Amino acid sequence: MIIVMKPSASPEQINHVIEKVKEIGLTPQVSRGVERTVIGVIGQESKLTVKPLEAFPGVEHVVPIQKPYKLASREFKKEDTVVDLGDGVKIGGNEFIVAAGPCSVEGEEMLIEVAHKVKAAGAKLLRGGAFKPRTSPYSFQGLGVDGLKHLRKAADETGMKVVTEIMDTRQIDDHLEYSDMLQVGARNMQNFDLLKVVGDSKKPVLLKRGLSSTMQELYLSAEYILSRGNFKVVLCERGIRTFETETRNTYDLNAIPATKKLTHLPIIGDPSHATGNLAYVPAMAKATIAAGADGLILEVHPNPEEAWSDGPQSLTPKMFEDLMKELRVVAKACGREL
Amino acid sequence: MIIVMKPSASPEQINHVIEKVKEIGLTPQVSRGVERTVIGVIGQESKLTVKPLEAFPGVEHVVPIQKPYKLASREFKKEDTVVDLGDGVKIGGNEFIVAAGPCSVEGEEMLIEVAHKVKAAGAKLLRGGAFKPRTSPYSFQGLGVDGLKHLRKAADETGMKVVTEIMDTRQIDDHLEYSDMLQVGARNMQNFDLLKVVGDSKKPVLLKRGLSSTMQELYLSAEYILSRGNFKVVLCERGIRTFETETRNTYDLNAIPATKKLTHLPIIGDPSHATGNLAYVPAMAKATIAAGADGLILEVHPNPEEAWSDGPQSLTPKMFEDLMKELRVVAKACGREL
Amino acid sequence: MIIVMKPSASPEQINHVIEKVKEIGLTPQVSRGVERTVIGVIGQESKLTVKPLEAFPGVEHVVPIQKPYKLASREFKKEDTVVDLGDGVKIGGNEFIVAAGPCSVEGEEMLIEVAHKVKAAGAKLLRGGAFKPRTSPYSFQGLGVDGLKHLRKAADETGMKVVTEIMDTRQIDDHLEYSDMLQVGARNMQNFDLLKVVGDSKKPVLLKRGLSSTMQELYLSAEYILSRGNFKVVLCERGIRTFETETRNTYDLNAIPATKKLTHLPIIGDPSHATGNLAYVPAMAKATIAAGADGLILEVHPNPEEAWSDGPQSLTPKMFEDLMKELRVVAKACGREL
Amino acid sequence: MIIVMKPSASPEQINHVIEKVKEIGLTPQVSRGVERTVIGVIGQESKLTVKPLEAFPGVEHVVPIQKPYKLASREFKKEDTVVDLGDGVKIGGNEFIVAAGPCSVEGEEMLIEVAHKVKAAGAKLLRGGAFKPRTSPYSFQGLGVDGLKHLRKAADETGMKVVTEIMDTRQIDDHLEYSDMLQVGARNMQNFDLLKVVGDSKKPVLLKRGLSSTMQELYLSAEYILSRGNFKVVLCERGIRTFETETRNTYDLNAIPATKKLTHLPIIGDPSHATGNLAYVPAMAKATIAAGADGLILEVHPNPEEAWSDGPQSLTPKMFEDLMKELRVVAKACGREL
After folding, report:
1. Which of B28, B261, C123, D27 has the most CB atoms in a 10 Å sphere around its CB?
2. Of residues D52, D212, D278, nearest to C307 (C-beta)
3. Least CA distance to B28: which residue of chain D?
4. What is the pLDDT of residue B48?
5. What is the ipTM of this complex?
């Protein structure tokens, strides 16, 4: 941590800061420059976070040097984490994994139909919302536990794994019964009570980046889960909020190589939600592989114009099948199996 | 709702859309222009939201005309809503209301001390976090229910009302016992299960705008609460995420007149969290009044350099007292009591 | 400047950086911490900017400590700069200054009519675009030099000063002949050749913040002008790009107290362009005063529905007159004359 | 164009708008809905842009239906534009084109050395800044015309084409003499006088997206050039401003498929400037190809730690050579030659 003093800071103010640093058991190292004094702090920075150093008189600002996340960092764990969902489905290894399915679970029959088709085309996980986070209270809110049951049945019939969103801490028991992977959605990325519950569950988690979250905040939310002893965390880039309106959000593929450099966690991409536009999904899905991601989560609906949510960005099963063929070629060129 | 067809849309595609609109019981009105056909839809748009019209072949995009929020809109209710917290504390009337207190509840004694001082200076509500949403799992997470009890005691001793954050649906009973106003924080603005629980509680709610939420999304989150029959909702602007780094967030005062125009709900401002910098709080507090807000929520700590969270943006009780005097003059110039 | 080395940096890499720092004539101060080594650099940082330190092997990142702008900084000049336009019109002193007029100059007669009205209501500067930066090549591009002449005539007839935009270096001579204050628009804030020409001219300059410019970048653009020996620079906040769509841009009033703290330059606000919505102009104009600005620039058009540009945000002369009365009350409450 | 009237609009206000629409020679089509009246306008919308319809009493807002750019649109020209730089160098065809070179031209010898190396590795264009847009007036501003001469010489010796930035209208003659392709930088994307001069020149243009420009604004800036009769325009995505700080800007690859859908112009990517971080360039370069771009522009410097600008994001010639091999494999998988 670097404490930058104001040019006008008095010797008393500087000493006051130095004393506080020592008091906590850290070592201050003082550089008196031309314009201002800078105090480097040696030792575990986290000891200092409880003290709001910027509130000290004479302090201009404080620059953290150490990363605030530990367990998620590449420095903590050099080798890539591989999250094992069982039955050979692993995210983060050499195999590139695709999750596919409708935005919302609308019924058992439709789900089983989609599941068979996406499985045949190469998807390993079945996705679909049972509990739906909807901006408007007047939008379809999901089938709830019935939706979870449909997902379980469709997955069991097809030999797939279920990934589906948990929205509230009170839903945990149902999810533990029916889901294979708990999705924490973008709007809940900083629902810290939910992160704790999901961490304690020890189930595999798919943690989506919030719409206005920095990558560092995403890693800190992962840290909430990891620090509960649950290392089965897969991150997901799903677009951030910017001024651009041609796409629903700005799908930030830079998060892929950044996450690979800064953390050991697997990361997948969600171009369906991020772009909100079917026309851009194939190109951005290919780019996701080329950027180095470990997988994709894609919306597939048998009849997008009848979908109860997110129709405009859903692929039909036929389009998904064609896309998977293209993705396979790109994956191979990038040294990944699919 | 306006359905804009692609220039290349075939007559069959256009007819297909027209048929679907009629099927739902709405009236299509077709304009065949030079370049493309546009279909206006007359009737309750909400009937159409279940159909993802943009997924229909030949449709370029769909422009909603009606606002998606109803109960929150100025059109639904012409007169300003005034939220009554009891004992003469009302938000949204002619009186400009100030809530003040520390970021986190750190102990009973300190809280009572602060409460006395901010009360004396003119604050009507006592603020303070018992449950703290912290980006890092290693930061202080709040005193929990003990914090709520301290708040209740300090408020009772000083004749103030308590506003404090609820972070999870499971905390509702404790909040109902100890708080006067339930704060839904920026990170939970789209925690829809929490909004439902808070709506059902019928308690006054302070709903903070999310860091990347549009004003319309804020109103839709309010709509979740209103549609549960709880009209005691006060909105709060607390800064949005932008590229600017000199302030912690960008305090978006434009939300004040916009909310006054578009809704009937009271709105207050939180310059402490928004700017994250003590130096900017007084100027932005004055600007908040001038922009037409109904109140302010300010961080006040007896000893900011010992604060367990957010020290750099906390006023001392003396600074708060001085600021209140200045605010009173500006409020008067703007026709508001304080 | 603080050079943060990677945890994996070798002793050779650390020494290599130390040697480079010394070579340039600066003093390195090395802190060997638990995780990584940090090298503080004492001396004029600007000597180092020519060396891309982050490209050195073993360097993780570099944290500048000194502000990159000098002449614009409050540290360089403690007292507020007052820009004198002559005939008693001064920006940055106790008087709050208002510039008013149409978005575009559309003709001499209309301009003289508006000038008389805004002058009578209290405006000191006449604004109006002769050269118009328009997003589309098919939009009205301004009357050019004829527009400048109309502005000069209207200002002379009414005893006002002219502020108008210069878009290209080749226009400087015409502006020197007809304008009193050269406006550099948001889109040209980083047109560095234009900044140099405007700096060399020694004329008063109104420098508008770019739509995606940080405050620091605004100050650096001012620095281009100041470093040419022209200290007659007034800054202008006119909204930044965010995801919000209810307002055209997000009028960032935080820039007012920030600029007052960080620089000695006057700053005014432009709520007309920033909000793009007439309904929000009065509230935000009042907030601009309360935030501590030195003036306002407002769009006034005798007949907004016939305006050739920006009608929706233009006040009528009558609305302007009424607003000025309100602004006067707020200004007084804030200790400013108007 | 759709004109949405306020719910409170009077019959007179509605008729007033209808009359104005007819006056201009367009056909209004009125839909009287449950809540409000909507007026569709049939005919060339551009006729209406001169009238600020939102300033009319009773009008709530106006929704444009037609795209504001014509010549740049895919509807205007179905087939892809291929920009021919001569000697077989074509951008927009099946061949994927790479431009490479240092950020700044620092001297003739160094440039020739780099040119030979990047040419050998497969680059067709030599890039390098002679006129440098620098945020600070104290940063290196480029060698100017000498830089252009060095570029010409290095390109001629190696059989490459020169692409370099023009910053000001007064530089056009020198550029016409020495450059093969005129780069308009991100900060000048809306320097409309420069766009006009560059359009009139009839030279190939590389137009970079501004840091806060929407895609539509980028196409409108292209329209400035096209409408001057210069169709040799190549667009370039180089990152937008967001809240994320791990990357310098957010490289928005979504712009690639969007541009391919909405326009007929070629588009290339600049991951060096966009990410500002060498570590992310290879992954994002591969993703650029996979997203469907027509080329890349990459920074290559023989000794990044001695670079006069942008060292941290520059590849060494060896890294560039290795990257080109990887890119070739991805290009092939995507059906492109490299």
Report:
1. C123
2. D52
3. D31
4. 67
5. 0.93
